[in-house]
Amino acid sequence: MTRQLVITTEPINEAALLAGRILSANMGAAVYFLGVVRGTEENAAIRALEYEAFQKMVEHQFNRLFDEMEKRWPVESVRLLHRVGVGPCFRESGSRCRRSPNTSSRRRSCRYCR
Asked: Domain 2-112 sits in which CATH superfamily?
């Protein structure tokens, strides 16, 4: 299984992520999730969120999840990007993409790693 884990301070370019997605001839399903910073929480306005991450722990925990996904389902690849630092409202904060041979395994892997 091909893996990509990126923690970045740069804005996430949704168009570039979609343009860079490649499906092999064996893949029958792809799932793409894009998280954005919402504008309100309990009727109070939000200007931005600040995300923090301890890089080594993030890498360790996500690699454990990726290892388990690889054991359970025929997932061809997984790509996870998350932004750290200040994320303005209505801007991308995280992205996940998985490719698998069929919809059933794609759904199960998505429920596992959400």
From this structure: Molybdopterin biosynthesis MoaE subunit (3.90.1170.40)
Helix (H) or strand (E) holding 103: helix 103-112
What Å distances lie between residue 61 and 8, 16, 113, CA to CA?
Answer: 17, 26, 11
> Would you tell me the crossing angle of helices 55-72 and 103-112 to the nearest 10 degrees?
150
- Token pair recorded at residue 29: 């399903």
Q: Is 85's pLDDT higher than 70?
A: yes
d(CA 89, CA 34): 14
| pLDDT value of residue 37 | 87
The tens digit of pLDDT for each residue in 60-71 reads: 999 999 999 999
Nearest residue to 17 (alpha-carbon basis) of 113, 110, 94, 111? 94
Q: Are strands 2-8 and 77-83 parallel, antiparallel or unpaired?
A: parallel
The whole-angstrom separation of Cα 22 and Cα 28 is: 12
The dihedral through the CA atoms of 66, 17, 12, 6 has a sign that is positive
Residue reference for tokens 């893949």:
27
